[in-house]
Amino acid sequence: MRRNWFITAVLVLLLTSCTGGTRESDDGTITLRFQSLAWQEESVEVNKELVREWNATHPDVKVEYVQGSWDSVHDQLLTSFEGGEAPDIIHDASDDLADFAYGGYLADLTDLLPERLKADIPRHSWETATFGDGIYGVPFLQEPRVLIANATWLKESGVRIPTPDRPWSWPEFRRITDALSGDGKYGVAWPLKEPVSATLNLSLSAGGQLFHRDADGKVTIRFQAGDQVVPRTIHDQANTDRSASPTTLGSGGSDTLPGFFGGRYAMVPLGFSYRQQIVQQAPKGFDWQVLPAPAGPDGLAQGVSPQTLSIAEESPHQQEAARFIDFLLRPKNMVRLALGDWMLPTGTQALKDPALHTAEHDWATGTALAGHLRPAPAQSVRGYPEWKDKVATPAFQEYYSGAIGLGELRERLEEDGNLVLARYQR
Which PROSITE patterns does this UniProt record tie to the protein (predicted)? Predict the structure, then answer.
């Protein structure tokens, strides 16, 4: 019996020593686990290169690259946190951090990060990863939603080509897509398989806010005039003007590219990083260009949820992990990460790099929009994932398909939505 107890104790000790992100060897060398969600070939290679460069110059603190996936990151992280096996450095997106931050799974980075990094990233970007009084992620990559257009089609039509200095208004955008449509072709194809973030983020330009926080911190949903501009535009394009393809409303962004290349759609609203897929997949001679999304009373304002780097609260080597993040996000390295992901860096120094201001692949157009990016409306709302999945996604999908009207959309977003949020605010 005593022998069995001893064996059990040894096994428990061995299992305990193997859990968690950090490992420490007999000679004192620390190994930190960095879980990256890079998925494009260029991006994966840049991340691995930076890890190799760190390891070559930091013999006492090694970093192990761990490949993660955007498709399963939330559930995978939750399981690793609860099992005591979280990686030390965590790549995620700011709109996925709230529950982890409030749940105590992420370290507060306020006193861990160097002043250089804090000063280099604008305040509005830090707001995307700030929950309560703490900072729980470093926002480092972001992308505006833009219009990818068939340049030949637009040029031949004679429509005014928008620029960041002179964008289309939402009413003008609707008129132009109507004028471009006909004979089985559409002025725009909205890929809205995931309609909520696209709708809410674009609505900032029209003064949309949707989530309203009172003095006590309680959040309520109010679907007001500014919130209705973008969804009404999309609904009317699809159901009244017939200028938006009805078949793409349930599609992902990549699903629209064959039709775009085939001359079925004049424009597709997509994230800025989709340019890489277009460069790789477009037929030879296909001429395309990047246009800014339409503007409203608040100009080109647009919500974003930047990619972030966080540190697990359970990591015993948080300072070393913060040093690695600082290395990864030095201006030149941040530029390398941005180019690898075809996105924009948040850092002000990195944004000045000439490589991000070239006409090639319209980098300059995207960079001109960086100053207009703001925290996504739902950034710090607890219960947002449930509201999005159970209430908002089906409601927007039905509205865009014409199955319900604006009044019912408002009722479901507000009444059903506030019931969901209330459970998280008790």
Answer: PROKAR_LIPOPROTEIN (PS51257)
